[in-house]
Amino acid sequence: MKKIIATFWNECRLFIRDITGMVLLFLMPLGLTIIMALIQDAPFREYQHIRFEILWLDADKGQLAENLREGLEETGQFRLIDSLDGRPLDTVAVKAAIQGGRYKIGIIVPRSISAEVVNSANQVANELGKSLGAAGKLPERPTRQATVEIYFDPVTKQAMKSALLNALDKQLTKVQAEMILGRLSRKMEDLDSTGVSQFNLEEKLQAVRLREFAAGSRKGPQLSSNSVQHNVPAWAIFGLFFIIVPISGNMIREREEGSLMRIRMVPGSYLSILAGKLLFYVLLGTAQFYMMLVAGLLILPHLGLPALVMGQAPAALLVTALAIAITATAYGLLVGAVFQTPNQALPFGAISIVILSAIGGIWVPVEILPPGLQQLAKASPMYWALDAINDLFLRHGNLKTVATHMGILSIFSACFLFIAGWIENYRKK
Amino acid sequence: MLRISNLHKTYLKAVEPTLRGLSLEFPRPTIAGLLGPNGAGKTTTISILCGLVRPDSGTVEVLGADIRTDLERIKKRIGVVPQSIALYPPLSVRENLEYIGALYKIPGTILQQRIRHFLQLFGLDHTGSKAIRYFSGGMKRRANIIASLLHEPELLVLDEPTAGVDVQSRNLILQFLEDYHGQGHSIIYTSHLLEEAQQLCREVAIMDHGQLVVQGDPRLLMKDHGFSSLEQVFLHLTGISLRD
């Protein structure tokens, strides 16, 4: 124990003497976390919080066009623009504005499309009414094909296209269904001898509704991932892993300068000295991680972002942070053991962290990666680290919830330490 | 004090063996010089007797204990001064010594007494909180030696302790080694400064190509080979070809 404490204090002294290194180790990840949270705020915001501008040319002036317009505006995602530079839109202006990249989306509702929908609804109502024995017939004529034209700037993201097409499709179906149901309801009234409607078809068909519920049984605010909830833990984990730079650098320096030789000459197991070093870097990494979280809690709200919500399991969070710090420290020891010079270790260490973070879901959530990469993500300790934090922050998890993650991070740590030990032993030969 | 028998060592991926059946013996407490040109195997021999490198075959007994079975006991009884300054440059000499003393589990008050004693003895008591990185070459060498003395080893092994130091520092170091031996301790020392070895050592072992070339009292070796200096004996036995 004396060796562990002595080594711990020695590492503290060495760290404190390098003021610049100490400041960089804390401030660089802090700056990175804040900047990434700010930059990724827009892409992370829900679509309902972003209003896409759409050029809207209504050549129909009928009920369908009006309903489509209302439907799109009701979603809150779209702002419809029907004039440009003080002049009403026409087909040429819409196409030119999209082609020139001035606007991303244009919709042209063709003339007489409402009449076509009414005719279609009448056809369906007449057919059903006839089957039910209802008297009378609504006016109808043969169907003419009508198309709502949608234009996209080629740079438009597929997600935005899908959102718009879904909204339009839903609205079109809704309008058509309402027209058909309205006509059918009237037919049903005609069948009723009292003449008083006892049967509201639209109401009956709306018996089943959609509502969002939380899957978890635990109490807590319902959260969804946003820029802060993703970026703060993600970049805090990323920053914590950068602790491998001082660890591997110090190990190599100790080897080069000969102090490792002196330490190895000390009677007793080298493991207790290694434990002292591990203890220092694990606590340092944990402190750095918590500093990032505190920044998410206190600094980011002042920059116009939501405050970080840190879940309701502080003990589980501490255990998770320690497990991540142990994994990062073990990885640092491995890098320090493998490489002979700082010029080898530092570029490898830094770039390997970037790669592990990219496949581990730090840059973008794993869910939007291709299926192959989603599987590969599990090979990165950062994936398990981030998933554990998401479990605690977003899914209201507890220690039991993240036990598997802790186990897997422990396996990573054990593997890193085992390989590092094997390499150090190999060097004796 | 030291018995090496038929020691072989070939490093992994090395083209040639570093040690080829080295055998030598220093039976009594002494100041022994382990001499040889570059690549003779001196540092490997020291590393093996400290347990830092494993030999392929052969036996090594240090202070009567076998390195294979009693390494921990040996570590407690020997002090090694590496060729490099094996200290933490950002820390002061006192902080370095406090850490190393703690690793040897020397009780606090005793450790502080020894640190004070050795800092004074080696003329470093005035350095205060000055980081080692700002020390002169001679100061670093002296601090490097103190770090290996804190646990009062019976055998002190020094790998080129006076390399790159000024005359005053060298004089102090050599005087200390004489005194330390005078207190009943043993010293094994490597150096390329053969005049220094001739002056200091009671016995020398000259190695070349991983083998012992000759061993004995330097004065007797000079007499036997008909030379007036150890350096002439050395060149006569190991040749003048470069060993880069």
At a glance:
The complex is a heterodimer of chains A (429) and B (244). Chain A has 429 residues and is mainly α.
Question: How would you characterize this protein structure?
Answer:
The complex is a heterodimer of chains A (429) and B (244). Chain A is mostly helical and 429 residues long. Chain A has 2 domains: 2-44 and 224-427, no CATH class; 48-191, D-Maltodextrin-Binding Protein, domain 2 (3-Layer(aba) Sandwich). Helices cover 64% and strands 6% of the residues of chain A. Chain A is built from 17 helices and 6 strands. In chain A, helix 9 (227-241) packs antiparallel against helix 16 (381-393). Chain A is elongated and about 105 Å long. The relative contact order of chain A is 0.11. By secondary structure, chain B is of the alpha/beta class. Chain B has a domain at 2-84 and 193-238: P-loop containing nucleotide triphosphate hydrolases (Rossmann fold). Helices cover 37% and strands 23% of the residues of chain B. In chain B, the strands form 2 sheets. Chain B has a 6-stranded mixed β-sheet, with helices on both faces. A 4-stranded antiparallel β-sheet of chain B has the order 2-1-4-5, with helices on one face. In chain B, a hairpin with a 2-residue loop joins strand 4 (57-62) and strand 5 (65-66). The mean pLDDT of chain B is 89. Classes of the chains: A mainly alpha (429), B alpha/beta (244). Chain A binds chain B through residues 2-3, 5-7, 9-10, 13-14, 17-18, 256-268, 273, 426, 428-429, and chain B through 11-12, 50-54, 72, 75-76, 80, 82-91, 95, 99-100, 102-105, 131, 147-148.
Relevant terms:
heterodimer; A: 429 residues; mainly alpha; D-Maltodextrin-Binding Protein, domain 2; two-stranded antiparallel ribbon; 6 strands; B: 244 residues; alpha/beta; Rossmann fold; 6-stranded mixed sheet; 4-stranded antiparallel sheet; 10 strands; 37% helix; globular; ABC2_TM (chain A)
